[in-house]
Design a protein that fits this description.
The structure holds 2 protein chains of 2 kinds.
Chain A lengths: L1 H6 L9 H33 L4 H9 L2 H26 L7 H19 L2 H25 L4 H24 L13 E2 L14 E2 L1 H19 L1 H11 L1 H6 L4 H27 L13 H11 L4 H24 L5 H5 L1 H12 L19
Antiparallel strand pairs in A: 1-2
Chain B lengths: L1 H15 L2 H29 L8 E3 L2 E3 L3 H11 L14 H24 L7 H19 L5 H34 L3 H20 L35 H20 L1 H11 L1 H6 L4 H28 L9 H11 L4 H24 L6 H13 L2 H12 L20
Antiparallel strand pairs in B: 1-2
Helix pairs in contact in B: 2-3, 2-14, 3-13, 4-8, 4-11, 4-12, 4-13, 5-6, 5-7, 5-11, 5-12, 6-7, 6-11, 8-9, 8-13, 9-11, 12-13, 12-14
Classes of the chains: A mainly alpha, B mainly alpha.
């Protein structure tokens, strides 16, 4: 299998691909990060020197506490989905249906909250719905060897139809009524720190996200299960030989991606108190951005979180810029995150994905 | 990277399946989706409220929606009720053919890319870009000519414009994939969002019809739209456009099966390594097939503008995503796309009839779309079921012990 995967790189030098390819992608990643940091610093310095120009406005926006808190809020669904995507893809199952998992959990969270009156029960309901859909995806891909990309698309399209369908049946329109939100948790004193205070005065989902990022990192790097997941994606044969069922590890990883994406989707809708299901729904591509975020973060939970902050930061900036009435039209500012995703993907296109990702693993015992 | 090798594996598997088996699997997937859809309608009927008189009763339980009525309306309604007398080509049947026409193009668009081993999820965006360009450029050109001559010149011109702009937009993910290794699934989805955003900006600003409240371009004059032949035109259907579509099916079939380019496309879809060894320029094939795929999507956009709306409006229906279903259902075979497009045209057109006759939300077809894709993607499931049904007892059923891997052996 490894020969064919190297050969399909479409580049003429397959032998050196693993060595120089790694260095090359590492440097583009560092380069992109460095350019981002430099641009931010340049804007801040420029804004400090010329406060009355457009550079000054940009600097104000970047250094504003509101931008950081908006970026954190916007990164919650993307980062949760990205964490889920890491588990799934690391185990060898490419989960392109993250978008669908976000949609289904966003709707269910609101529905359950509206029925029971409990925000956290609703949160759990959303997670459950997403996990069930992930289970369906797992059965279809692991048990029935469906193509992972097509099955993932199906998960997305099913959720894209099902959530507005249910909303229409229950509430008579694609948008749900509003429900109470979980509010914000402020940590006294720390919340008063300029700029970074935003880290300590946020929705509970933001704290949950910090926890999830840390835990995911720990599970991957320090636990047996993390090693199994990695082995299942890199060398399922070895894992099988060691007596661990590849199918079970993959089931666990895909279900975990359902749980994590579900937390993201529930947080997305509950923080706003409503699900909107018109067009691409309120999820609006966040699941796909999540995929790029973890590719850019090189499958590292912390890296994925940081690259999510890059996308969410841009999104937050465009919201603030809209409010300030900068001369760029609203519709065009809105597409910046999508454009950036394409640029990032073009730069880090040669990400090394797990060796056995996307392939069905057939246990040797017949 | 891995995606093409994956796509190759799928294609190998699909190619391995005989044509009969493929048709059986598609039919089974369709039937299963409709059955699940019926269950969904029943469940939804329990979750909404209605008076006792409106409810229907199955198994001693009352339901607000009746799946039999829903699917009767969905299929017979879409065909214009051929069994109840008074059938006219002007009715719902022409709506079905209209939807079929657009789905032919979006389905062919997805199928062509798929045959090259590329997942083009961006047909929707390519259609939007092509449609917008057609609306703007044909409007500009319509001031130069008029009358019957105008129609003869403007309609082909509009189709060409749609193809060119859709093709250029399709070339973007092609170049990104060929030269930067960027996964086309993600880039095409992102380009869909970008197409929607940019056209919304243009159509609400520079190209907005000042006399309309909606975000739309100035309507094209009658002579710059597809002429109606035989069918009354009340339902915005043109036989000429359908004819274009049928010709496209034949042309793509010929292109894929009987030309050198088609051979390159098919071999790079099935065996990229062998193709490259055999002298196929992989990068060029990727760019060319995505460009052509985008052009077909762009033509769908041109048809949408010149046949249905008469202008470009923000919020284009999801013909592009339906094209994915059509293509997958057809096993990515151009001739199969013809049948699958008609079938899905029935579903799309029937949706409006269902909406008119019952309270069942139109998003039902969206769910069916996802389910069909899901089932067609798992031929293994049907093979397993088929095996269980045909050779029961010939094998000792000892997998109940739950031994890991036990479910895998057949």
């Amino acid at each position: 299998m490894s020969e064919s995967s190297q050969g399909s790189d479409a580049e003429p030098e397959p032998e050196s691909a693993s060595e120089s390819g790694f260095l090359e992608q590492y440097s583009t990643r560092v380069l992109t990060a460095a350019v981002t940091v430099l641009a931010v610093v340049a804007l801040l310095v420029g804004g400090w020197l010329f406060p009355d120009t457009i550079v000054g406005t940009f600097a104000d926006v970047i250094s504003s506490e509101n931008t950081l808190s908006a970026a954190l809020r916007l990164s919650v669904p993307i980062a949760f989905a990205a964490l889920g995507g890491i588990f799934s893809e690391k185990s060898g199952v490419i989960n392109i249906g993250l978008e669908g998992l976000l949609i289904i959990s966003a709707f269910t969270a609101i529905y359950v909250t509206e029925v029971t009156g409990g925000v956290w029960i609703g949160f759990g309901g959303g997670v459950l719905a997403s996990t069930l859909l992930a289970l369906l995806f797992a059965i279809v891909t692991i048990e029935f060897r469906a193509d992972q990309i097509i099955a993932g698309l199906a998960v997305w399209l099913i959720a894209l139809g099902l959530a507005p369908f249910a909303s229409q049946v229950i509430y008579g329109g694609p948008n749900t009524p509003t429900v109470p939100t979980p509010g914000t948790i402020s940590i006294p004193l720390l919340a008063d720190i300029p700029f970074f205070g935003a880290l300590f005065s946020a929705s509970p989902s933001v704290y949950l996200l910090f926890l999830a990022v840390g835990l995911s990192w720990y599970v991957f790097e320090r636990t047996t299960f993390g090693r199994w997941v990695r082995a299942s994606g890199e060398n399922p044969k070895a894992l099988d030989t060691a007596g661990v069922s590849v199918a079970r590890v993959r089931y666990a990883a895909v279900l975990l991606s359902g749980v994590l994406a579900g937390m993201g989707g529930s947080a997305l809708s509950l923080d706003l108190g409503q699900f909107t299901g018109n067009g691409p729904t309120m999820v609006n591509g966040k699941g796909f951005i999540a995929i790029v975020a973890y590719l850019f973060g090189n499958y590292n939970p912390i890296g994925a979180f940081l690259s999510t902050m890059l996308f969410a930061g841009l999104d937050a900036m465009q919201t603030v810029l809209q409010l300030q009435g900068i001369g760029i039209p609203r519709q065009l500012i809105r597409i910046t995150p999508f454009v950036v995703v394409i640029i990032v993907l073009a730069l880090v296109g040669r990400t090394r994905i797990p060796e056995a990702a996307g392939e069905h693993y057939e246990s040797g015992e017949e | 990277m891995k995606i093409p090798s994956r796509a190759r594996a799928v294609l190998e598997r699909l190619a391995g399946a005989s044509a009969t088996e493929r048709i059986l699997i598609s039919t089974a997937a369709l039937v299963l989706s409709i059955l699940l859809g019926a269950v969904l309608v029943l469940v939804a009927g329990r979750m909404t409220t209605c008076t006792a008189g409106e409810a229907v009763y199955y198994f001693g339980t009352g339901f607000c929606y009746d799946p039999v009525v829903v699917f009767d309306r969905l299929f017979l309604g879409a065909l214009g009720d051929p069994f109840s007398g008074g059938w006219s080509p002007n009715g719902q049947f022409s709506v079905t053919l209209r939807e079929t026409t657009l789905l032919l193009f979006t389905g062919l668009s997805v199928a062509l890319a798929f045959r090259a081993g590329i997942f083009n999820i961006g047909t929707q965006g390519q259609m939007v870009v092509g449609g917008m360009a057609t609306a703007v450029l044909v409007l500009w050109a319509s001031s130069l000519v008029s009358g019957v001559v105008g129609t003869f010149l403007l309609v082909p011109f509009g189709v060409l414009v749609g193809a060119v702009f859709g093709g250029l937009y399709g070339a973007i993910p092609g170049f990104l994939k060929a030269y930067a290794d960027a996964n086309e699934v993600i880039t095409t989805i992102m380009l869909n969002f970008i197409a929607t955003g940019v056209t919304l900006y243009l159509v609400s600003g520079a190209f907005k019809d000042p006399e309309s409240a909606a975000n739309q371009t100035v309507p094209l004059p009658e002579y710059a739209q597809f002429p109606t032949v035989l069918f009354g035109g009340r339902q915005d259907f043109s036989l000429v456009a359908l004819f274009f579509g049928v010709v496209a099916v034949g042309a793509l079939y010929y292109l894929l099966e009987h030309t050198a380019f088609g051979y390159d496309v098919r071999t790079s879809g099935i065996q990229p390594d062998a193709a490259e060894y055999g002298g196929v320029d992989a990068a060029r094939t990727i760019v060319a097939s995505l460009t052509l795929s985008g052009a077909l999507g762009g033509v769908a956009g041109a048809m949408y503008v010149m046949m249905i709306l008469g202008s470009f409006q923000s919020g284009v229906p999801s013909y592009g995503f339906d094209g994915i279903t059509v293509s997958i259902l057809a096993g990515n075979n151009p001739l199969g796309v013809g049948f699958a497009a008609l079938l899905f045209g029935v579903l799309k057109s029937g949706t409006t009839v269902v909406q008119f006759a019952t309270d069942v939300p139109p998003q039902l077809v969206g769910v069916l779309r996802g389910l069909i894709i899901l089932f067609v993607a798992m031929p293994e499931f049907f093979r397993l079921v088929g095996k269980r049904v045909t050779d029961t007892g010939s094998k000792v059923v000892a997998t109940d012990g739950g031994a890991p891997g036990g479910d895998d052996d057949e």
